Amino acid sequence: MSVRSRVAGKAHGLAPAVASPVIKWVGGKTKLLPDLTSRLPSSWRRYYEPFAGGAALFWRVAPQRAVLADMNPDLIGLYTALRRDVAGVIRRLEHHRTQHSEAHYYDVRTRWNDRDIAWTSADRAATFIYLNKTCFNGLWRVNRSGAFNVPIGRYVDPPICVPDTLRAAHAVLQQTELRCGDYKTAIGDAGKGDFVYFDPPYDPVTPTANFVSYTASAFGPDQQRELAETAQKLVAKGARVMLSNSDTPFIRSLYKGMRIDRVMCARAINSNASKRGDVAEVIVTGGY
Ligand SMILES: C[S@@+](CC[C@H](N)C(=O)[O-])C[C@H]1O[C@@H](n2cnc3c(N)ncnc32)[C@H](O)[C@@H]1O
Predict the structure, then answer these.
(1) How far is the CA of 82 from the centre of ligand 1 (A)?
(2) How far apart, in whole angstroms, are the C-alpha atoms of residue 160 and residue 168?
(3) What are the structural domains, with CATH classification, of the chain?
(4) Which are the contacts of 52, defined by CB distance < 8 A and separation ≥ 6?
(5) Bridge partner list, 241
(6) What pLDDT digit, counting tens, does each position of 219-256 carry?
(7) How far apart are CA 17 and CA 7, in angstroms?
(8) What 3-state class would DSSP assign to 163?
(9) Contacts of 256 (CB under 8 A, 6+ apart)
């Protein structure tokens, strides 16, 4: 069933729901998809997703005109390579699949962090997917200098190369503009009739619960405040805005005047299994 018929029953011109994330990403929205798709506006001009990550909602919606952005250059490099040369990425991933071992993982991880290596974009994209699918907990974490430092995970048969998913992503990306950088720049030309979905790094529920190292820089209270102002300005310009975040008093205070729905979501951001479970999140909507 397509998102169009399930979500709004209106003519978005959306593709059937065949595409899905090509990587695992902390904060990925796959589990929240029913709550998100049921809150989409019924139509829009251009779709913007400036905190792409694994981009679960983007793949599900498969928008006809879109801007997909993130400040993580490896992520945007991956999507750029998939758009341009999906066959090349699949070929290289098949190689990693057949070579997969502990020694291969650590060898590839060392090469990934060696910025002197001249990679093709397909090489680097395939390596990103390989490390992402085989690393511990699928936890893409970099240190302050941007080096990927996660040990190998304990998987019997990790899904290193799934050609159908990669080809579906390739198809959706043909109608997408990719931008690498801060979200404010990425949505700089969004305006009346456009739809923007913000999925920023979440406000921490407890002082120790904050996972903010998707990139080498942090997203703290000042950035949350600035994001809320950006969202309000977009609504004032006639754009439609949806945002997800954790359900904290601070986040609620930032989005007064917009609709705030509380939803429960199963989350596994903590590597300690005993600390996983349902957490309360909010979906904020405005402008529609
Ligand atoms: C919660 S994740 C997005 C998850 C995504 N919706 C999914 O389904 O996988 C947040 C993303 O925001 C990116 N990010 C962090 N700070 C940013 C900034 N200032 N501008 C743009 N992207 C940023 C991170 O690199 C990360 O990929």
Answers:
(1) 19
(2) 16
(3) 3-72+167-210+224-286 (3.40.50.150), 78-165 (1.10.1020.10)
(4) 58, 68, 69, 70, 75, 76, 79
(5) 196, 286
(6) 899 999 999 999 999 999 999 999 999 999 999 999 99
(7) 11
(8) helix
(9) none
Q: How much is the mean pLDDT over the chain?
A: 89
Looking at ligand 1, which atom is closest to the CA of residue 25? 9
Count Cβ atoms below 10 Å from residue 103 Cβ, excluding itself. 10
Residue 218: pLDDT band (50, 70, 90) is: confident
Q: What are the tokens at 66?
A: 């879109």
For 114, the token pair is 């060696």
What tokens does 19 get? 């595409």
* Residue 16 CB partners (closer than 8 Å, separation 6+): 1, 2
Q: What is the C-alpha separation between 32 and 34, in angstroms, rounded? A: 6
Cα distances from 98 to residues 19, 82, 126, 157, 159, in angstroms, run 25, 21, 13, 11, 12
Taking residue 244's Cβ as centre, other Cβ atoms within 10 Å add up to 24
Distance 98 CA to ligand 1 centre (A): 31
* 72 Cβ below 6 A of ligand 1: yes
Q: Tens digits of per-residue pLDDT, 93-118?
A: 999 999 999 999 999 999 999 988 88
Distance CA 204, CA 246 (A): 7
Q: How far is the centre of ligand 1, averaged over its atoms, from the C-alpha of 243 (Å)?
A: 12
| Dihedrals phi, psi of 177, to nearest 5 degrees | -95, 125
The CA–CA distances, whole Å, from 68 to 14, 53, 153, 244 equal: 16, 10, 29, 17
